[in-house]
Amino acid sequence: MKTLRVPEATVTRLSIYSRFLERLDRHGITTVSSGEIAEGVGVSPAQVRKDLAYFGEFGTRGVGYNVKDLMKYTMKILGLDQTWSLAIVGAGNLGFALCTYNGFNVRGFYIAAVFDNDPTKVGKKIGHLDVQPLANFPEISKSENIRIGIIAVPIRGAQEVADMMINNGVEAILNFAPVALNVPEHVETRNVDLSVKLEILTFNLGFRSAQSL
Amino acid sequence: MKTLRVPEATVTRLSIYSRFLERLDRHGITTVSSGEIAEGVGVSPAQVRKDLAYFGEFGTRGVGYNVKDLMKYTMKILGLDQTWSLAIVGAGNLGFALCTYNGFNVRGFYIAAVFDNDPTKVGKKIGHLDVQPLANFPEISKSENIRIGIIAVPIRGAQEVADMMINNGVEAILNFAPVALNVPEHVETRNVDLSVKLEILTFNLGFRSAQSL
DNA sequence: AAAGCATAGTTAAAAAATTCACATGCTTCT
DNA sequence: AGAAGCATGTGAATTTTTTAACTATGCTTT
Q1: Distance between CA B57 and CA B74 in Å, rounded?
Q2: Nearest-CA neighbor of B103 among B19, B171, B8?
Q3: Separation between Cα atoms, residue B213 and residue B95, nearest integer Å
């Protein structure tokens, strides 16, 4: 089998292209060129073509790409031709926001359950969900076929939650706690760190002044 | 002047190192090696040293780095030796979560104001803040010296909000709407896209199965 | 039907980022 | 004081990623 490592940056961009195509489709646009995609998402046309080339040939020379088709292909590649059930652990403000965030549903994610071990939160309603005690995780993750977990607890609890998830069959974790999780090799994790991007901005604001000295 | 472009990945990691050092410091640890930092944040020791080398020599050969000092240096480099006033536009769930998120204060960010033009939201309290109508942005951004704006509105409103921010002196924008903003060259923007990382996970879950066919 | 045009796909070159390996220099121990 | 040990800092090598240039192909128009 042809084993071709796909750069993570390519996957990231694919996700962005995919969303952009969705938007074009909603606007009734049927055809798009690599240049237009590039312009729309802020990369180079060559980059767009190169990224897509990892996965096949999706366009028509001289014409461009069929929006609907390419959208479907990209979603398929990203594994979004199925619905993924998610479990969120942590029903604080962040957990709450994630639960009510609409962007997930649109992309085929379904938040199946929210957990917290704070007794003042357990039982509270978030949208159509009741906040569950952590003790219910094994049962629910099984019945809902949870393969992806989201950690929205403070640093101190994050590793413990991760371990618990993994013990219950979770294969991938999206971690909002700013800490590197220690996980077995077969488990995928990615961190979302809300202040990193902000600090890139402050770095650049400062660096620019330094440059002009 | 020595002009040395610093890779964005380096800045990203610097932010992560910085937070890790903060944590070590809170635990009373005074000295740390590149290897320990690397282990703690999940990169290679050489990477840590290389990243730091862009900015100077902060360690002692044979010993390592002084935690407190390196923490201060990294924060200084990131521009966090001052308090940054932020304005959030969008008081939906995400805006709310961002307002109440504690991680920002810790790193020297201060949320000075929240805006929304939904009349049902204006005037509501989020923490100590009243949600302001967008019309108040010019006045408040001036009096609070807002240089960084956060966009937490849906796609459709994002560009308009960005334009408005820029017209009022905002120099950097953190954008949570999944769309590429069109901004003048002197304005820095970064997007935070909550579903991209999730889609990297689903890609990897699927790709792994594909590999083992 | 043929020619021209536009854009995808591909290969090669360039640039960027990471890793490697070692020389350097501080600290400690004898 | 000297030697040994250890971890930094750095220049070179490697790998990865991006950019650019080129080629091929399908559509449209004449």
Answers
A1: 12
A2: B19
A3: 44
Choose the mutation target among A199, A205, A207, A213 for the interface with B, i.e. most B CBs under 10 Å: A199
CA-to-CA distance for A139 and A160, rounded, in angstroms? 18
Bridge partners of A130? A125
Rounded Cα gap, residues A107 and A21, in angstroms:
12
Domains (range + CATH), chain A:
8-77 (1.10.10.10), 84-195 (3.40.50.720)
Q: Is the pLDDT of residue B4 over 70?
A: no
Helical residues (DSSP H) of chain A, grouped into ranges: 8-26, 34-41, 45-53, 67-77, 93-100, 103-106, 137-143, 155-167, 194-211
| B109 half-sphere exposure, CB direction, 13 A CA radius | 26
Per-residue pLDDT of B28-67, as tens digits, reads: 999 999 999 999 999 999 999 999 999 999 999 999 999 9
- Taking the C-alpha atoms of residue B206 and residue A148, their distance in angstroms, rounded to an integer, is 12
Strand order in the sheet with B59-60: B31-32, B64-66, B59-60
Write down how long chain A is. 213
Q: Is the CB of A208 under 7 A from strand D?
A: no
Please state the pTM of the whole predicted model: 0.93
B119: alpha, beta or left, given left = phi > 0 and alpha = psi -120 to 50?
A: alpha
Chain B residues with beta carbon closer than 8 angstroms to that of A18: 199
**Three-class DSSP category at A114:** strand
The residue type of B80 is: L
Mean of per-residue pLDDT scores for chain A: 94
| Cβ pair B36, B58 in contact under 8 A | no
User: For residue A148, which residues of chain B lie inside 8 Å, CB to CB?
Assistant: 198, 201-202, 205
Residue B189 region, left (φ>0) first, then alpha (ψ -120 to 50), else beta?
beta
C-alpha B51: how far from chain center: 18
